[in-house]
Amino acid sequence: MESSSILDLKAFVPAKDYGLAKQFYLDLGFKINWGNEQVTEMEIGSFRFLLQNYFVQALAENFMMHLMVENVDEWWELIERSDLKTKYPDIMIKPPALQPWGLRVLYLSDPSGVLWHIADNRSA
């Protein structure tokens, strides 16, 4: 099979509270392309994932998404302005820091425990 025959690739991200998770991603800057009671396609830029109304705690706590951005400091400012920690008190947020592998990474968990690595490759 040739790679040219591939049309799309998306991860299914679990949601403990489906409505809360959709609002979290909207607050973070994602948009909803389409959705129903079971799955919603979330998009930011030209990248998408499927938020699913399905939850297994062990899956969510071990699920990670990586978002490479031009400037992670701008994302940090957006998160602080959006007051996500107040709106979603159970999430984890860590400011950008240079990691040993050379990326500056901001760590953010969603309300279900899914960990996001939002990173840029600019040096500190």
Description:
The chain is α/β, with parallel strands linked by helices and 124 residues long. Helices cover 25% and strands 35% of the residues. The protein is built from four helices and eight strands; from the N terminus they run βαβββαβααβββ. The strands form two sheets. Strands 1-4-3-2 form a four-stranded mixed β-sheet, covered by helices on one side. Strands 5-8-7-6 form a four-stranded mixed β-sheet, covered by helices on one side. The longest helix has 11 residues, at 18-28.
Write a brief structural summary.
The protein is α/β, with parallel strands linked by helices. It has helices at residues 18-28, 57-61, 72-82, 84-87, and strands spanning 12-14, 31-35, 39-44, 47-52, 64-68, 93-98, 104-109, 115-120.
Biggest sheet architecture? 4 strands, mixed
- Terminus-to-terminus distance: 42 Å
**What's the CATH topology label?**
2,3-Dihydroxybiphenyl 1,2-Dioxygenase, domain 1
CATH class call:
Alpha Beta
Which range best describes the helical content: under 10%, 10-25%, 25-40%, 40-55%, 55-70% or over 70%? Answer: 25-40%
Continuous helix count = 4
Unreliable segments of 5+ consecutive residues: none
The H-and-E topology, N to C, reads as: EHEEEHEHHEEE
